[in-house]
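Worked problem 6 (solution included).
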Amino acid sequence: MTDEQSLGLRERKKLDTRRALSDAALELMFERGLENVVREDIAARAGVSVRTFNNYFSSKFEALAYRQIERVRRAAEILRDRPADEPLWTAIIESVIAPFEADGVGWGPPTPAILAEIRKLPAAPEMHTAFVHAVGDELVAAVAVRTGTTPADLYPKLVAAAVNAAFVTTFDVYAHTDPPQVVTTILRRALTELARGLPDPSV
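Solution. The predicted structure is:
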């Protein structure tokens, strides 16, 4: 095995561990309630030590946020590979939705119990901090490449900020909609409205 192959395997193992810890945190939140989730139980559910958990995340909120943060990063990678002649917002919408579909998220409406736990997350300052701290500039860079701008320019920053706002708004609507809706349906609608320039809905 070459050094490059060995490095690739190590990185894959790290990624798998992060995903396992994040999935364990989400499972426990839905089973026991957010307030009853502790890092020791997350580590045990994922089959690793608490020390390993601490090597990857500083809190349960970072673990809970990771899967969504990862989807944003994957969306940026997908956006880079979309056809060059595809309209920008079409490419963005399909790129953002793709990681949800790949993960099997959004195939059905959530149960009331799941929504009750999801509604707790925005109220936790630690959750907001986890998102702000961890979401990098990948989407800005991907939009810049696609539009012939630079990551320092206003346009790609505005587009990325709008997409991030769509995520936040989608999950707020998702958590409070009655009857429950599929998250990808709401997200696609939010991004489509942005693509249309947010026309006045009363007109």
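Discussion: The chain is about 70% helix and 0% strand.
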